[in-house]
Amino acid sequence: MKKQILMALVLLPMTMQAQYKSEVWSPDNGDGTYTNPVINADYSDPDVCVGASGEDYYLTASSFQCIPGLPILHSKDLVNWEIINYALKELEPREVFDKPSHGNGVWAPSIRFHNGEYYIYWGDPDHGVFMVKTKDPAGEWEKPVCVIAGKGYIDTTPLWDDDGRCYLVNGWANSRSKFASVLTVRELSADGTKAIGQPVIVFDGNGTENRTCEGPKFYKRDGWYWIMCPAGGVPTGFQLAMRSKSPYGPYEHKIVLQQGKTAINGPHQGGWVHTKYGEDWFLHFQDKEAYGRVVHLQPVDWSTGWPIMGKKGEPVVTYKKPQSSSTTIVNPVESDEFNSPVMGKQWQWHANYDEKFGVPTAFGTFRIYTYKLSEGWKNFWEVPNLLLQKTPADEFTVTTKLRFTSKADGQFGGLLMMGLDYSALVVRRVGQEFQLVQMTCKAADKGKAQTENIIATLKPTATDKTEYKPGIHEDIYLRMKVKNSELQFSWSQNGKKYQDCGDVFRMKEGKWIGAKFGFVAADTNPNSDRGWVEADWIRVTK
User: Fold this and answer.
1) How many Cβ atoms are within 10 Å of 16's Cβ, its own excluded?
2) Which of 38, 122, 215, 352 could cross-link with 109 by S-S, CB 3.0 to 4.6 Å?
3) CA separation for the pair 212, 225 (Å, rounded)
């Protein structure tokens, strides 16, 4: 039956996808109001633009080393969002990003619509300022162009002025440049592909409450040049707006959004949009530690001449929705039946993709091959073929049905929650049997060795009837329940009765990203044929 469903889906146009409604977080209250966060997932450093029609909004966010990169989300009302594409297929140089390069790669991108094309700029702190563009955000994006080569450039945004000239604002990474808390503006060529002017420092937050000013976004409104940027640090900071009659300043500034008496910490770094209905809105992130940086939506009031955000400068929790012609409720996809011949848009690898990592099948499954671990390996930090997605809510349950196929001792695969600390529930071959094992590591980024907790010994549920390289198989259901950043594993052999197992795990964020869940498949035998995880489905529920 599943194969028949798959074949039917293949015959449909790729754009004909069912709209996904999350069981665990949907911000649209169905009564004309919404509740923040509008995206309860780790879309760090979000930026947004209005599309050509005036009825479409497109959002991108930091993707760091994860591939595909530069996620493209679409909305009709700034509340209901869906993942429609990625703008970046791989990161260069490949010798750096073919293996996990945690926390590097794409930092704080900006997305803009100009002269019929969509542009995304970002800073790679080790390699420079890059740009991609397209005429269709849901279609093919051109290969990246290096606009400025060098170290230290981050958080870049272009502004095309009324006379066609183009300017770029950016921040600086102290870890590379050994200075920070300054913003610079320079002129680019009119096509935005190269710098033609020298940088000018237009704002300096050093030695003031405006330390760590970064993530600037560049706008023009009513003859004023505006730079909106966060300052004060990620967990506790605030949002600044600054204005000048010249792109090169000097700029006067004001705090326009801060936590105040609310529970929304560090509300800052995001994008402002002016809608066709005359409304103004600001999308920003809130750092929720292990869950990552989730996206909030604030109304913007310009009546004082400054963009005061939220309710008198403090974040709103529930508010009336932006005016829109759409009433559709849709959320970023989480569950996956693996019935499509392409990888679901919720998934990312931990490094540049290699086809030996895994591929969809014609059988309604997704296959992840075991990665050959190096001699003396200690944990999963350097494993590139982790197939992972963002956490979708504070409380949720993930259940997957899979078959693990092994060709040799030492091969294992299963369900993983990955971060600086991680825990996985895997099936591992030992002789002609399998062990169910919880593998946990604290401070994986520091090279610490993982610990193991053997839960059960399992007989194979199937054995190949061949003398040539036979495999043995284990059909199993694995589950993780998440609440308040804690995770409890359980398992089942029939999908009906589940047994809690292992130690409760305290989730930990990754390097600049939230914890992510998905699949791991690896191999300690360097000479064997690869085994694989065959994921039948994965479902995210309450």
Assistant:
1) 8
2) 122
3) 21
